[in-house]
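Sample 1 of the test manifest.
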Amino acid sequence: MNPKKIAETLHPLERKIIPYLKEKQSVEELISKTGLKDVEVNRALQWLKNKELITLEEEIKEIVELDSNGKTYLKEGLPERKFIKVIGQKTLTLDEIAKKTQLSNNEISVSIGLLRRKNIIYVFRKKDIIISLTEFGKKLLNEKLEEEKLLEKLPIEISKLSDSEKAVLEGLKKRKNIVKISSLKTKTAKLTTLGEEVLKIGFEENVIDKLTPEILRSKIWKQKKFRRYDIQAEVPEVYFGRRHFVNQAIDYIRSIWVGMGFKEMKGPLVQTSFWNFDALFTAQDHPVREMQDTFFLKNPEFGNLPDKKIVDNVKRAHENGFNTGSTGWQYRWSFEEAKKNVLRTHTTVLSARTIAGLKKEDLPVKYFAIGRCFRNETLDWSHLFEFDQTEGIVVGDVNFRHLIGYLKEFFKKMNYEKIRIRPAYFPYTEMSCEVEVYDENHGEWLELGGAGMLRPEVVKPLIGFETQVLAWGLGLARIIKNYYQIEDLRMLYKNDLNELRKIKEWLL
Amino acid sequence: MPTVVFEKKEVLKLLGKKINEQTLAENISYLGTDLKSINEEEIVVEIFPNRPDMLSVEGFARALSAFMSIRPGLRKYKVKPSNKRVKVEQSVKNVRPYIKCAILRNVELNTSEIKNLMQLQEKLHQTHGRDRRKVAIGVHDYEKIKFPLKYKAVEPSKISFIPLGETIEMNLKQILEVHPKGKKYAWILEDKQKYPVIIDAKDDVISFPPIINSVITQVTEGTKNIFIDITGEDEAAVEQALNIIVTSLADKGAEIFSVKVNGKETPKLKSRVVKLNVKYASKILGIRLKEGDVKKLLARMGYSYNAGKAIIPCYRTDILHQYDIIEDIAIAYGYNKINPELPNISTIAKEDKKYYFNKKLSYVLVGFGFLETNTVSLTSEANETKCGFREKLVLIKNSATQGYNALRKHIIPSLLNVLSENKHNSYPQRIFEIGTVFEEDETQETKVREETILGIASAGTEEDFTRMKQTISAILNNLDLKFSFEEFSHEAFIEGRSARIVVDEQEIGFFGEISPLIIESLQLEIPIAACEINTTKLFRIINSK
C-alpha cells in the first residue's frame, strides 16, 4: 500500500499517537502525553507496528526510587542535615548533638563517618568528643547536600543519572532503606522511514469512522470521506453452535446405510441376558461369556423373558441344537441366568430381536443400527466403557461373498479403499471374520470390527425357518479416532468446550 | 481369550521344515488365530476359545502343518488297551461325576516338555475347564501307581495324604484351608459334603481332584510313562480335554493306551462323521465348489472327506453344525481370495422417526449457537446429589471404574459436570445434549424404562431465567405447540426462579437458575441457567395429533 492509502486507514487512536513518535517514546510517556488509556496506547502501537510504520522494542530499565527511610528523610531531613543544622556556628559535644537532634546511635555514627569523609566537620577528642563545622560545612548550611539533591530527583532512571550522581547513589545504596532499585520492562516505539512519510502526508481530520443511521439520515456522508480500513487487521474469534463431532460421524454413517436401502433398528440400552447373549447362542457358562466384560444391573437385577415359544426354542438350541442340525452346547440351560439384566454389550442384540419379528414374506430385508454399547472395562486412553457401534444385517438368499461385498462398499464410502478380512471367532457367527482397513495416511492396517454369517442355531429358533443372515458390528471409536488423529479415546467424552469449538467438521 | 507363547524353534521342528518368518506369520494369521508377535525366539498368539486343541505347541503345529500342506489330511491315532481298570463309585455322582483316563508310554519329558505340558494343562483349565470346575486334569508318573484305581467321594477329615509341594500328611479339609491350590479352588467344592479322591490298589490317595495330586505320583524329568486323569461336571468337556492332551503327546511320539473306566475304554479317540453337502457349502459361501476341491481344502484343515461325509478329527471340540465345516473350507480357500459382490437386493430405507425428531431439535439448538456435548450414561449417586437431584437410581453391580456405578435419571448433572471442567475456557458457555435416562418401571421387559431428555445449560453473566425462558419458548413455538409454565420448586434451582413446562396438560420439563450452593460445589463462580425437556414425551404428544 502506498503511504497515502496507509494514511487514510489510520484509526483515530493511531492518529493521536503517531505525531509523538518522531522521537523514541515509551508507553508510559505516551500515556501521559496523550491522555489515552494503557490498553488504547498498546493497541494503537500494535496496529502501527503491523502496518510497519513504527518499530517496537522492549527495554528493561533500572529505576531508583525512594524506599521507606528515604521517604521519611526527604520529608524530615537526612540525619546528617539535622546534624549540621544543630551545630551551626557552635561547637558541641556528641552528647549535646545527640540530645538536640534526637537521632539514633546508628544514625549518629553514620553521620559522623559521612561528614568527616566529606570534610564537613572537625572532630576533637578531649575529655568528650567535640564537633564543629568546617568552612565548607558552614557553607552547606545554606546549600543542599548532593544526597539531598539526588533524593529530590527520585524516582528516576539510573541511565539518566550523571556519573557523579551515580557515585552519590552508590553511597545512598549502602545506607538502610533509603533507596531501592527496580527493573521495569517497558516498550518504546519510534517511527520508521515509512512512518515518517505517512506522518508528513498527514491525515484528513474530517473522515467518517463508523457509519450510523444518523449519518445516513443527515446525508453528511455526501461531504465527507470514509476512513479506509486495514483489511489485514486481526479480528477477535467468534464461535458458533455445533453438533458434537461424534454425532456428526454418526449422522454421516447413518446416511451411508440409508443410502443403501437399510431400515433402522432401535431398542433399549438395558437388555436381558436372554437377548444379549442367549438368543445369540452364547452359552451361559462358556468362556466366551467372559470375552465381553459385562455390566450387570444390581437393581432391578432381573427382567422378563419374551414369548414362551421363542424362549423354548433358544433353550433347546443351547441344550441339543433344536432342529437346526446342530449338536448344541450340551448343557442345562437356566431361566434365571437368562433373566439377568445387563447393559447391552453390542448392537447385535437388536439384530436378534429384529430377526425374531420377521416372517418369510418379509424377506429379503436389510437392517442397520447405530447406538451405545457398554463393556465393563477400566477407563483408560485406549478403553472406553461406553461407546457407539454400528450394526447391520441382511436376511434372505445371501452368502459370504455378499457379506464381504457390503463391508467393502461401506468402507469405500468411509474413504478406505482397501479392506481385508481374517478368520475370527464369535459364538453367534460362522463364518466369522475380523475386518481390517488400510489407513493410507499412516501405512497401517486398522482393525475396525467383526462380521460373519449368523449361525443356524441363532436364526432358526428366532425366525422359525432356515435362512441366511449376514451380520456385522463395527466400533465407531476407532474410526473417529483415526479421522481426527485422536490419541486418547477419552477425548470422545472429554467435552473441553474450546476443543469442541475448534475441532474440524466431519466432512468425509 | 488365552494368549500362548510357543518357542519358534519347537514349532519349526514339529513342522519339519525351514520357513521364513514372514511366510510363517501370514499363515498363522490366515489359519484362524490372532498373531500377537513373532521374532527369532517366540511366537505369541491368542487362541480363539473354540480351538482348545491349539493350546499346545503340538496341536498348534499340527494345524499349521496341515494348513501349509506339509502334512494335510486326517491324523489317525492308535489306541491299545492297557487292561488297567478304574472303578467309579456311586458316591461321586453328586460331587464330581465324570472321570476319563489314559496311559501314555514313551513320553519324552525334559524340562521344556514338562513346561509345555504344564502350559497346556493350565490353559485348558482356564478356558475349557472353566477354572477347573468343569474339567480338571491330573498328570501322574505311571510307574508309581498300583492298579486298579478307585474314584470315590469321602468325608473330608477321614482321609489324608501328602499333597504336592508339602512334606507332611494333610486331610482333605486341611488341604483346602492351608495349601495354596486348596485355597484357590476350594470354591468348587463349596457346597459338597464329601470330596472326590482317586485311590490306588495300595489304598494310597494319588489325587484329590480338582485340587492337587499326591507327591507319590509326582512327574519328574526321568518319567517315561504317564497316567492322566480328567474329572469334571461335563462329560463331553472331560472327553474333549482328554482327547486334546493325548493327541498332543502322541504327536511327539508317545503311545496311547486306554484304561477301562467302569468297563468302558477311555480314551476312545473316535473321529466323528458329519454329513457335508457340497452344493450347500457352495451356496453359503457363494463360490463354486467341486467334490475334489472340498476334499483338498478339508485335508488342509485336518479333515478327511469323501462323498458327502466329512470325518472330523477327534481333538476338535467346535464342530456343532455343517456351518463349522463350511467355515473351515472357507479358511482353507483363503478369505481374501473370495471375490466380494453386492447382491441385487432392492429395499426401501427407513429411519427411526424418534431419532429424526431428536436430530431436528439438536439443529434448533445449534441454530441458537449452543454447543452439543457428549456425556456418558453412567454416573454415581454422589454425583447426582451434588447437583441437587436425589431420586432413586438404577444401580450397576460390578463396575470396574470408580464413580460410575449407576444409570442417570437426569441430564442436568452431566451438563453441570461439563461446565465445572471448563473453568479455563471463555464465557458464555452454552451447551446442550439429548441423552438417554433410566428409571425403574415394573411394566417394562427389563423393568427399566428408558427415555430421552434434551438438557440445556448456559453459564455466563447474562445467562438467567429470562434468557432460558426465551430459548424454550422459541423451541416450543417452532414445534407449533401450545405450552404453559407452572410454579416449581427444586433443590437444584434458586427458590422462586424455576418453572415447570407443561404441554398438553403434561409436565414435559422444567428449568431455572441454578442455586449458588450447587455452583459453589462445582467450584465455579458464574451464573448458570439449566433446563430439561423430555423429548420422548414431546414426540408422543406431537405424534398423537
